[in-house]
């Protein structure tokens, strides 16, 4: 299959993850404006993640390309902890999460000529208790202000946790490659082929 593959994201993390599969793709920012979408906390978080992934990908569907889109939510006690964006909000997020369990909900949609494949991966994480100084030290090291939950688990953030339950570690970083690679192969995409 020689369809062009589009990653509906300008995230450097998602680009790096998809790059691990050794397939040619183009990363394009979706035209869907997520900031204008109603993220009512009463919505089912799994459904919301999947809907956001769908809307991002749908905005780039052209009828001939394979479009991969994804969304990730940090779900904690019926609240969504979005990307903090700054130091003060990151401190608040980590103080809420420490010593408690939360979920990272990662959904993706794979748009192709015959329809769309929708998947969701849920990871359950229990964070250690930390002192205020430990939180400050961590944030200075990883600066995870553009990450859901205010941590980079693929970096020093792994040491923040007591326990992680997941089926696919790459889902924590934003794109579940185990299932995605299977879905791409089912569409005839060959992995690890150089351009």
Segments where pLDDT lies below 50 for 5+ residues? none
Q: Between the first and last Cα atoms, what is the distance in angstroms?
A: 14 Å
| CATH fold-type name | Maf protein
Rounded to an integer, what's the Rg over CA atoms?
17 Å
Indicate the mean pLDDT.
92
Order of SSEs: EHEHEEHEEHEHH
Strand content: 15-25%
What structural class results from the helix and strand content?
alpha/beta
Number of helices: 6
The CATH architecture is Alpha-Beta Complex
CATH class term: Alpha Beta
Total individual domains: 1
Task: Tell me roughly what share of residues is in helical segments.
Answer: 25-40%
For the sheet with most strands, the description reads: 7 strands, mixed
List how many beta strands DSSP finds.
7
Task: State the shape.
Answer: globular
List the helices and strands and how they pair.
Layout: E1 5-7, H1 12-19, E2 26-27, H2 45-58, E3 66-76, E4 79-80, H3 87-97, E5 101-112, E6 115-127, H4 132-142, E7 161-165, H5 169-172, H6 177-186
Parallel strand pairs: 1-2, 1-3
Antiparallel strand pairs: 3-4, 3-5, 5-6, 6-7
Give me some keywords for this one.
6 helices, globular, 7 strands, 30% helix, 7-stranded mixed β-sheet, alpha/beta, 195 residues, Maf protein
Task: Describe what this molecule looks like in 3D.
It is globular, with a radius of gyration of 17 Å. It has helices spanning 12-19, 45-58, 87-97, 132-142, 169-172, 177-186, and strands at 5-7, 26-27, 66-76, 79-80, 101-112, 115-127, 161-165. A hairpin with a 2-residue loop joins strand 3 and strand 4. Strands 1, 2, 3, 4, 5, 6 and 7 form a seven-stranded mixed β-sheet that branches. The protein has a single domain (5-186), classed as Maf protein (Alpha-Beta Complex), CATH 3.90.950. With 195 residues, the protein is of the alpha/beta class.
